[in-house]
Amino acid sequence: MKMLPNLDKYTVILASNSPRRHELLTGLGIDYSIKVLPDIEETYPSSMPAAEIPCHLSRQKAAAYSSEMRKDELIITADTIVSCQGTVLGKPTDIVEAKEMLHFLSGKKHEVITGVSLTTTTFQQTFSATTTVYFDALSDEVIDYYVNNFRPFDKAGAYGIQEWIGYMGIKRIEGSYFNVMGLPVQQLFQVLKEID
Prior knowledge:
By secondary structure, the chain is an alpha/beta fold. 32% of the residues lie in helices and 25% in strands. It has a single domain, classed as Alpha-Beta Complex (Maf protein), CATH 3.90.950. The longest helix is centred in the N-terminal third of the chain and has 11 residues, at 53-63. The model has no long low-confidence stretch (mean pLDDT 95).
């Protein structure tokens, strides 16, 4: 028995290289394949509010697939950002930037926002999820250990909640844990249930 028989008519494609998103979508029990196009542009207006950026970027990613999308394909695209005190953090480019991001987040609360787009040749549905994360104060020693051993260069805000720094550095969260990992799967499941 399948939980989502309404998806049988679609070939579900996850357009992401993220191992966390692969793990989370697999956990929903959905059959899917992975397809990632190289060099997709990820830009947004500097004046755009942080809450709107992930949805904008998820739609931008989906648009890159439009010219080669088949009628039976359902493409899932997503983007996650971290927003702290009006500053938007994406993925760090190197060790120095990763450490700077963690110093900035240390002892503060921030929002993790993920935008998700479900796209076919005939429709698109986009939603977002926000989780508030409260970090403990992080010492230089803790930050150096984490960045040097876990190298979080593929993670918005330079950390993974499911890694060592999440175990010892996050005091509490308000909202979806899985959203912080990169995919708000509970919300995604509800949206997928409604697809015709």
